[in-house]
Every structure is written in C-alpha cells, then in structure tokens.
Predict the 3D structure of the following.
Amino acid sequence: MKAYEIMNKQVYKVKENDTVRTVIEIFIKYYISGLPIVNDRNEIIAYISDGDIMRYIGKHEDRFFNTFNYSFFIQGDDEVFDERIQRLLNKNVLEIAKRKVIKVSWNEELENIAAILGKKQIKKLPVERNGVLVGIISRGDVIRHSFKAIM
C-alpha cells in the first residue's frame, strides 16, 4: 500500500508569513497538534507542532533547580507568563518551527512510513509529490489501514 492510498488529502497548513496565533487557532478549532508550513508554491518548508509551542512556553524566565535529590521549579508571576504567551502569539511561525522536516513521497510504501513514524517518534508525516504538499499521514492512519483486514 502506498502513501497516496492512505493519506488525508485535506491538509491543514499555514503559510510562512503566518503568526503562531494562526497556528494555535487551527490547533484548537480542528483538534490537531501539528501543521506543515508552506510557501506560496505549496512547498513544505517547515513544520510546527504542539511540542514546539510547549518548548517555547516553558523555557524563558522560568528556572529549574535540582538540589540534592529535590527538584524545585520556580516560576515567575502570572504576569510574566502572560507576557510570554502574548509574545509567542505574535511571533512568525518560522521563529519556532522545525526547518528540517521529515516527510515522505506520495508513493512511499506503508511499511516504510510506519518505520519512519516509529523510529523518529513523530505523530504525522507530510506527503509531497514533485516537491508540493499533497497530503498528511498520521500514526492512526497507518494503524487503521494496516489492520483493517482483521477488523
């Protein structure tokens, strides 16, 4: 079975000049956790996930101390956190997205897709044909199509 046979052709995506606010709105509206970022030619240039958002939220003013066998998390006041959230929402998506995108060709074999998703520990793979985004495949898509014969 090939990628084009199981991929979701309705791909939520953002453009390279969008803000993180747009990403968050799409995440919330469609209950998803990652989006390809494309240029005007619909070429995949980056990928942003909920993990990228979490890393940004947690890394600036907050500090983590490990003294002896005790860990202490010291967080600034809520106002500092809220300011960080506002700064994040106004950032361009490319400021926090991953530029090295793991993706597959539209005619990639299902077993290779499963191997990539497992080995790289990612949830979704953008699918491209002739350098252009044409679909997306999730772990759930692989499971459903791999085991539909026995269900």
